[in-house]
Amino acid sequence: MKKTISIAVVLTALLACGSDDETKDMTYPVISGEGVTENPVDCQTYRRGDVLPVCFAFTDDTELGNYNIEVHSNHDHHSHSTSATECEEDHDHEHADAVNPWVFNQDYAIPAGLRAYTATHEIAIPSDIDPGDYHFMVRLTDRAGWQSLKAVAIRIE
Amino acid sequence: MLLASMLCAWTPADTTTTLQEVSVSGQRRHDTQMRMSQTNVAVSQKYLHEHFAGSLMQTLEDIPGVKAMAIGSGQSKPVIRGLGFNRLVVTEDGVKHEGQQWGDDHGLEIDQFAIDRAEVVKGPAALLYGSDAIGGVLNLFTNHVPMEGVGGSVQLFGRTNNEQAGVSAKVGGRKDKFFYRANVTLIDYADYRVPADSIQYYSYWVRLKDGRLRNTAGREHDGSFMLGYAGYNFHSDLRVSDSYSRSGFFADAHGLEVRLSDIDYDASRRDIDLPYQWVNHLKVLSHTSWRNDVVATELNLAYQNNLREEHSEPVSHGYMPTPDGTRERRFNKHTATANAMVRYERGRNTLQGGLCGEWQHNRSGGWGFILPDFETGSAGLYAMDRFEVRPGLILNAGLRYDMARTHIHAYSDWYATPTANGPQHLQRSSEQRRTFHALTWSAGVNWTRGNWLVKANAGKSFRMPIAKELGADGVNYHIFRYERGNSSLDPEEAYQLDATVSWHHGPLTAELSPYVSYFPNYIFLNPTAEYVEGLQLYHYTQTRVLRWGVEAQLAYRFARHWEATAQGEYLYASQRSGQKRGYTLPFSPPWSADAGLRYTYDWRGDGFVALTAHIVGRQDQIVPPEKPTDGHWTLNLAAGKKFPLGSKMLNITLHADNLLNRRYYDHTSYYRLIDVPEPGINVAAMVGLEF
User: Fold this and answer.
1) What is the rounded average pLDDT for all residues in chain B?
2) Which of residues 76-95 of A touch B (CB under 8 A)?
3) Residues of B with CB below 8 A from A79's CB?
4) What DSSP letter does each residue of B260-287 carry, written as one string?
């Protein structure tokens, strides 16, 4: 019996080796402003109580997954590698002054089967949050599980 | 955690069948090779000393098919043929060592300087070792019976990369049939250093000061004591050991949210600030055997306590308010193990049977949740026969049955989350009761004639799902992802076929070890397209997996003092079903090859100098979220010298890695995921005095 199983293992192995030609998605999804007016962009300033308009174009060579939008305080002035621009830092509102920083974190679904999608949202900026520097983050997956990130530096007054 | 670790290994009380060199030819190597039909390598204490590379795992990395997977803070875990963590078993004196299952980010929890010798079994070994022995087994031995009188050693060692300094002392003695051994080791190290001035973590730029990974310093304190009786037929010993370590987490790549702390991490490179972990492993091990010319019996009893805490700065996250105190996670696991074995020789047959049981109890604490409380009981039973057909031809076959029951507790958040039905304490993990069964088998052959030795083994091995895989539901801070368990997982099974062909003729030795394995239901942590609380969801699933590979070794001794060696390894892994069909498995090692030259001399004591080129291929076979890794090569130097001082012996060993100070990435390192390169030139040295 052991012999039979061993032979089965070898045969399975050989068969499996021979069929390794399926196409795998090895490409990251893309977050861009292609064909749309991308917003927000680096170094913009918004007001508390106003609306933050969001618009990004998502593309993938195979199939898009889902996305997440998150806003977090940058009162400590860290930087993201996906952002090439250096904005002037707001030193009137530093880390130590943070009392009620704005935290926004929302997951969104993209309908199945799409290779291109435009995300548009209008996010209300609460009026009681700390003014200062913030990072606006977009995270995007494709169906295969590759993830792309984009960080935008904005200021809230 | 969990389940299953039944281990019924039969280990002889130290038989001192040790090898001078991994590449040595000769009778001892031959004997080791004939002992089992799996591919195995015995590693002597002399080898461990001469190849000392800073840590036990880095020392063993010279063996083809064995790798040290860097998991952060300069710590590493064993990987055999690309499989690590819960897919291999580490034993100490024949009892399975607990400590792999809680997290990927802590070391072996073993005093590596207390190890007398080691043995690496590559490939399936479920028959003797039960659950988890899929990739292989790393057997560590600390039970060598000391000689009459009193002896011991003191070792001082250090490493340049993280400015590690340590001392280890051993003493042992024997009076008639009674013996004792004691061991103590102290290690202290500073922040890990890499040839980079910045790294990228989850889109964040992290600028490094002097190339140091902030807050990765640590320290380790180990101690053990053993008392024993070694008679002609009867042997019994009791060993108590404790291993404690405290180490910082890389402060820029850890936590609920990437943020800049007010802590001044750059103030000192030796201090341990938040976030940090401490781990304590207490072990009590009793080993008793009785034998005569026909029958041998053995009983191993063990108790192990793993205690681990992670501390970090309390911050509010999502709907969780700022917690009190810094204790983010606490795990407290008790494991009791009992193994009994009987071996009976009759004519050309050696029959062996074993029974083993294990019970585990885990309680978690702290304000962060990733792992539920659980209790697990398991039992295993095996029988095997080894039949010597004629001198030089041995057949073996065996059958094993295992059962495990696990009870995972429900867990709800300690804080309320607003929902449509008002504020609620959300349930993260539901109560589960699972029972697992596994029937495994193994059959093999050893054959030798003249210069040839051939062995082959076919077997089925398995692994019970652990609590993390069944019931995890939380953020993995070290890799910044959301991990969710799967309560419907079945025991992972693997069918494996492996062989070794070796040939030696005078000064020339050659060895080839091919293998192939098939997993009908490999437990894979699948990166999905979903988000949970802003983090990408990774979900445990089961997929069909095919793996095959080969290791090759060649050694040639010439001109009396010289030896040239060449070795290489290749591994292929492919998922054959599920969402990642066609992709490889995470951390698949690329091909690698070594070419080395060694000069040994005897001038007022043995000495050697060895130079090795280590060449690693590019890895394009990846699975999200990995990146392809370029190939690289490094030049490494090792040297050692013994100085006899009367009845004492002074040993000096030096190991210099990456002599050319090249900057490269290791595809199988956790640091690869956050773009942290491997260390530049790194010198490890050890001075030992034996008395």
Assistant:
1) 88
2) 76-82, 95
3) 204-205
4) --SS-GGG-SS---SSEEEEEEEEEEEE
Assess whether pLDDT exceeds 60 at residue A87.
yes
Query: Is residue A123 included in any domain, yes or no?
Result: yes
State the DSSP code for B53.
-
> With an 8 Å Cβ cutoff, is B290 touching chain A?
no
d(CA B465, CA B542): 11
Report the CATH number at residue A98: 2.60.40.10
CB contact under 8 A, B534 and A107: yes
CATH assignment at residue B423:
2.40.170.20
- Which chain B residue has its CA at the smallest distance from A15's CA? B546
Asked whether residue A9 is assigned to any structural domain, the reply reads: no
Whether chain B has a CB inside 8 Å of the CB on A107: the answer is: yes
Q: Is residue B70 part of a domain?
A: yes
Q: Find chain B residues with C-beta within 8 A of A22's C-beta.
A: 581-582
Q: ipTM > 0.95?
A: no
Answer for the pair B124, B461: CB distance below 8 angstroms, yes or no.
Answer: yes
Q: Is residue B611 part of a domain?
A: yes
Confidence of residue B171 (pLDDT cuts 50, 70, 90): very high
| Domain region containing B129 | 27-690
Of A77, A107, A143, the CB nearest to B531: A107
Say if A19 falls within a structural domain. Answer: no
Report the gap between the CA of B206 and the closest CA in chain A (Å).
8
Question: Quick check: A2 and B574 CB within 8 A?
Answer: no
Q: Does A37 touch chain B (CB under 8 A)?
A: no
Closest CA in chain B for residue A21: B582
Confidence (pLDDT) at B573: 96
pLDDT at B74: 62
Nearest to B205 among A16, A67, A80 (CB): A80
- Interchain contact, A151 vs B203, CB within 8 Å: yes
Flag if A149 and B202 touch (Cβ within 8 Å): yes
Instruction: Tell me whether residues A66 and B530 touch, CB distance under 8 A.
Output: yes
Whether pLDDT at B422 is above 90: no
Whether B408 shows a pLDDT value over 50: the answer reads: yes
Number of independent structural domains in chain B: 1
Lowest-confidence region among B1-15, B110-124, B232-246: B1-15
Residue B545 located in a structural domain: yes
Burial degree of B460 (CB within 10 A; 0-12, 13-18, 19+): buried
Q: Is residue A5 pLDDT above 60, yes or no?
A: no
Question: Of B98, B135, B93, B69, whose CA–CA distance to B6 is shortest?
Answer: B98
Which residue in chain A has the smallest CA separation from B576?
Answer: A16
User: Considering CB atoms only, which of B202, B258, B529 is closest to A143?
Assistant: B529
- Residue B565's CB is within 10 A of a number of other CB atoms, namely 21
Write the pLDDT tens digit of every residue in B5-38. Answer: 333 443 333 333 333 343 344 566 777 788 788 8
| Residue B5 belongs to some domain of the structure | no
Asked, for residue A11, whether it belongs to a domain, the answer is: no
The separation between CA A88 and the C-alpha centre of its own chain, rounded to angstroms, equals: 24
- A65 vs B contacts (CB less than 8 Å): 528-530
pLDDT for B14: 36
Does the beta-carbon distance from B531 to A78 stay under 8 Å? no
Q: Which residues of chain A are within 8 Å of residue B205 when distances are taken between CB atoms?
A: 78-81
CA distance B54 to chain A (A): 34
Could you say which DSSP state residue B183 is in? E
Q: Which domain holds residue A120?
A: 24-156
With tokens 């951390």, the residue in question is B587
Number of domains in chain A: 1
Per-residue confidence (pLDDT) for residue B252, from 0 to 100: 75
